[in-house]
Amino acid sequence: MKPAFIKAFTCWLLFFIFAASPAAAQWPRMTPSQDGVPISYEVYGKGEPTLIFVHGWSCDARYWREQINHFSKNNRIVLLDLAGHGHSGMGRSQYTMKAFGEDVKAVAEAVGSQKVILIGHSMGGPVIAEAARLMPGRVLGLIGVDTFGNVAHPLTPEILDGMVSPLEEDFQAGSRQFVETMMIPATPAPLREWILNDMAAAPPAVALSALKEMMGLFITGESAAIFKEVRLPVMAVNADLWPIDYESNRRHMASFEATVIKGADHFLMLARPEVFNPALEEAVEKIMKRK
């Protein structure tokens, strides 16, 4: 076989391999939020509705890594980094849930999604509620992941101060202590250490602002009041770490259902994807049946 032919064949083979690889075609994108802060997002798969995954406090899009292959088979899925997180820009003096909701709206508009289901982990719960309020007619439903335990949970400024003060004194140590309570002994040690170290490395100013803003909604009652405007089906896929007040949620929401995964921790989408993914898929299907 002639060297020239071998070289040409090798080039063609490499081109075919990389051009045919879905991973090679996927690059993060950027779009400005309502206030101009650049928001990083990734798109995978095809098919409507679009599933938009929103991470929690001091996390980013990587926390959904175990969902990409499963859900991109039948739907277009979008992962984003909220402002001040991951690869998105900073520059805000306050990291409110409403501003985060604008980040989600900006990404939904950038990808041209007309029908979306919003999926939010932890702090992502109140964020997707805000995003739904900003996108009337576009959102089919909300799915909380270890969130929406009780949207009317009573909280006092004193309790919030007690939560925040260790983080203000020493953010890294306080963050590790705070996040450790969200895990269980069965959490794999490498995953535990990665999460603890990763979240402790968050920008303290962003993390403290976001935590105060999120928990402040429970003090004012806005965490429940928002559902007077957001009249959509709400589902939850939660761990069994904390109880769910179904009665309270249903007093405020148009509808509420939850699937509880036993023996899971707060990061169940990473630690238990083999159980979590089918449960989330079922929640998506239930919302689709109600559209």
From TrEMBL:
Question: Which parts of the sequence belong to the AB hydrolase-1 domain?
Answer: 49-159
Key word Hydrolase present? yes
- Keyword Isomerase assigned to the entry: answer is no
Keyword vocabulary terms for this entry = Hydrolase, Signal
- List, in alphabetical order, the Gene Ontology terms for molecular function in this entry: hydrolase activity
What cellular component GO annotations does this protein have? membrane
Which top-rank group of organisms is this from?
Answer: Bacteria
Give the signal peptide range.
Answer: 1-25
- Name of the molecule in the record: Alpha/beta hydrolase
**Which organism's genome codes for this protein?**
Desulfobotulus mexicanus
